[in-house]
C-alpha cells in the first residue's frame, strides 16, 4: 500500500513538473549555444551542465567568462547566484530531512527552482504526506526536466551558431523565473524583497562584472527579512 501511494505521488509530481519542459528545453538549448560561442567544446559544455546543473549560475559564470572576469569573480558570482539553493534546502529540510541519506544526496543534486517550487507548494498544501510520499513527489517533479535539460544542452552545443536569432530562445530565462516567482508572492515580505531587489539592481547596473546583481540579491533578502520581522511584531501586538 505504501509503495502504491508513493508511486501515485511520483506521477503527481511528474504531472506538476511537466509544464516546465516548455521553458527548460529552449533554456538548455540556449546555454549550449552560448557555451560553444564562448569557446567551450561539447565535452566541456556537457561536463559544465551535468556537474553544476543550475541554469542561472551557469549563465552567470559563462557571461563573466566571456567578459574576461577574474576566476575568483566568476566563482563568487556563480556561488552567490546559487545561494538560493541553500535557502531552498533549508525550506525543504522539515519535509525531507528524515529521508535516507542517499535519497537526500540525490535530492540535493536535483534541487532546482522548478523542483522546489512544485514540491514546497504541494508539501504545504498536503501536510499529511509521509516522507516517502514527499520524496516520491520531489523526484517526480524533476523527472521531466532533467533528461531534457541535458539533451537540449547537447543539441544547443552541436547546433551552435546555426540557430537563427529570429528564434529568440533567450525568452526562456525571464519566463522561467517569472512563472515560478509570481505564484510565490504570497506575503508582503515576499513582495518587499522582490521590489527592493529590482530597485537596487537598476541602481547598480553600472557596476562591472554584474556585481550589482549580487548586491541587489543581498539587499532584497535583508529587506524581506526585516519586513517579515516587522509584520510578526505587529501581529504579536494585535
Give the N-to-C terminal Cα separation: 47 Å
The percent range for strand residues is under 5%
Structural class by sheet pairing and helices: mainly alpha
Instruction: Describe the main β-sheet briefly.
Output: none
Compressed to H and E, one letter per element, the order equals: HHHHHHHHHHHHH
Give the overall pLDDT as a whole number: 83
Total number of helices? 13
* Number of strand elements: 0
Low-confidence stretches: none
Total of domains: 2
Relative helix content: over 70%
Categorize the overall geometry. Answer: globular
Q: Give Rg in angstroms.
A: 19 Å
Q: Please, could you describe this protein's structure?
A:
The N and C termini lie far apart (47 Å). The chain has helices at 2-17, 21-37, 42-52, 55-66, 71-81, 83-96, 101-109, 113-125, 131-142, 145-159, 172-184, 188-203, 211-237. The chain has 13 helices and no strands. The mean pLDDT is 83. By secondary structure, it is mainly alpha-helical. Helix 3 runs antiparallel to helix 10. It folds into two domains: 2-184, no CATH class; 185-238, no CATH class.
